[in-house]
Design brief:
Blueprint (H helix, E strand, L loop, with lengths): L4 E8 L4 E8 L4 E8 L3 E8 L13 E10 L4 E10 L3 H19 L2 E3 L6 H11 L31
Parallel strand pairs: 4-7
Antiparallel strand pairs: 1-2, 2-3, 4-5, 5-6
């Protein structure tokens, strides 16, 4: 037994349908939903890469969702890929490959996602701007007095 409650998604080319199975304790108790291939409009990849948190920054993790979109507009989840923001392109590549594979099996269009390019421009601008420093005026000692010639008595010296 792997889990108390679980679900699985199976794309069966022989039966020409996609199935979602939910179970409880492996007892055969649960639900099964299926979508025939002819009812599939397309396979969509969506993500939350552009969403920001309250502070206006991007989230630390990005979620890419792969969904089957039926001809009536209803969506059913195939899977999700979660990646750290610096590895968002790797996660997106995995999600796009999954969408292509499901689309190929179901003979449906796979609508793939791409990373926006504005992120790279912002990083380049941030690197070019040097940090400005404030000049601080410091107290200095007066310049040293000129040295007296050899043999001449020095002021304040002992004889």
């Amino acid at each position: 037994m792997f889990a108390v409650i679980g679900s699985s998604m199976v794309v069966d080319r022989r039966k020409q349908s996609a199935h979602w199975q939910q179970g409880f304790l492996g007892l055969g108790i649960g639900t099964t939903t299926s979508i025939p291939f002819e009812r599939i409009d397309h396979i969509a990849v969506t993500g939350d890469y552009d969403e920001e948190d309250i502070g206006g920054r991007g989230h630390d993790f990005v979620t890419w969702d792969v969904e089957i979109v039926r001809d009536d507009g209803r969506r059913s989840s195939v899977g999700s890929v979660i990646a750290a923001r610096p590895l968002a392109d790797v996660g997106l590549d995995r999600a796009n490959r999954l969408a292509e594979a499901v689309g190929e099996m179901a003979e449906a269009e796979a609508r793939l996602e791409a990373l926006p390019e504005h992120e790279e421009i912002e990083e380049a601008e941030a690197e070019q701007a040097p940090r400005r420093r404030r000049r601080v005026k410091r107290a200095t000692l007066p310049p040293p007095e000129e040295a007296a010639p050899e043999g001449a008595p020095q002021e304040g010296g002992s004889r």
